[in-house]
Write a structure and sequence with these properties.
Order of helices and strands of chain A: EEEHEEHEHEH
Radius of gyration of chain A: 13 Å
Largest sheet of chain B: 5 strands, antiparallel
Number of strands of chain A: 7
Helix content of chain B: 25-40%
Largest sheet of chain A: 5 strands, mixed
Largest interface: A-B, 27 and 31 residues
CATH architecture of chain A: 2-Layer Sandwich
CATH topology of chain A: Transcription Regulator spoIIAA
Number of domains of chain A: 1
Number of helices of chain A: 4
CATH superfamily of chain A: STAS domain
Number of domains of chain B: 1
Oligomer: heterodimer
Strand content of chain B: 25-35%
CATH superfamily of chain B: Histidine kinase-like ATPase, C-terminal domain
CATH class of chain B: Alpha Beta
Strand order of the largest sheet of chain A: 1-2-4-6-7
Shape of chain A: globular
CATH class of chain A: Alpha Beta
Radius of gyration of chain B: 16 Å
């Protein structure tokens, strides 16, 4: 599982390099997210623009990452591709997370 | 990993597909890679293909996680697909433990309206299968679990 991250202004941006967040990498993803977000700003934006497929295990891992950061810190999601977006909508997880079409949209929202 | 293919035309241009993978963390990826290759002649719309991929991933992951007890057991997972006018008919069989109570889970929508700390991290799999697939049936036949479902794509 390839994650990279940087701090920009008030947020840590974590970018997923893999094309899939599925059962094969869900635990690895959860651990890598914990490592990447061990410190830094309260706001974490997960850039999913390279991810073309997510299954329920991957979705669960993102929920786990969000719960690990809560209550003080917040996880927002950016750059959902159509297939990933569909899974969030079907499971109504789109109502749990702040979703942004692109990373720039997220940046703009948090700069305000 | 084994791959066996038999060819019986159901609709023109698309053969019957048989895929066998070994249970384990990579089973779904391996099965889906083969399935996507086999479905290529149908030129499914990306939305249709991703829906098929999602449902089959959930079905195979459930088998690995429950029937084969997260690796405590091992065995084959057999994916069979035929193309009919009302869509793709899948049968997924395994030799693991039966579904509890002899029934497939109802796959109710998870509750996302409560406190953030109570948002579930699992339980989405069967919801997605039941939401996206049609004619879902589960049977235990001897030592075999047989899950059948239809994806209403590539309608003829």
């Amino acid at each position: 599982m390839e994650l990279s991250s940087k701090i920009e202004d008030r947020a840590r941006i974590v970018t997923v390099g893999d094309a899939r967040i599925d059962a094969a990498v869900a635990i690895e993803f959860k651990d890598a997210m914990r490592a990447e977000t061990a410190d830094g700003p309260d706001l974490v934006v997960l850039d999913l623009s390279a991810v073309g497929f997510i299954d329920s295990s991957g979705l669960g891992a993102i929920v786990a990452a969000m719960k690990h950061l809560a209550p003080r810190r917040k996880l927002a999601l950016a750059g959902l591709t159509p297939t990933v977006d569909k899974v969030f909508k079907l499971t109504r997880m789109d109502s749990v997370f702040s979703l942004y079409a692109t990373l720039d949209d997220a940046r703009r929202a948090f700069a305000e | 990993m084994l791959q066996a293919s038999r060819f019986h035309a159901t609709l023109p241009a698309f053969p019957e597909v048989n895929i066998i993978v070994a249970s384990g963390p990579l089973a779904a990826r391996q099965a889906l890679d083969q399935l996507k290759l086999a479905l290529a002649p149908l030129s499914l719309h990306i939305d249709e293909l991703s829906t098929v991929e999602l449902v089959l991933a959930e079905a195979v992951n459930n088998i690995c996680e429950h029937a084969y007890a997260n690796g405590a057991r091992h065995g084959p997972i057999h994916l069979h697909c035929r193309h009919h006018r009302d869509g793709l008919h899948f049968t997924i069989t395994d030799e693991g433990m039966p579904m509890p109570g002899g029934c497939a889970p109802p796959g109710l929508a998870v509750d996302v309206d409560g406190d953030l700390s109570e948002v579930p991290e699992g339980g989405f799999g069967w919801f997605l299968i039941r939401d996206l697939a049609r004619d879902v049936t589960y049977q235990r036949q001897g030592a075999i679990n047989r899950l059948s479902l239809r994806m209403a794509v590539a309608l003829g």
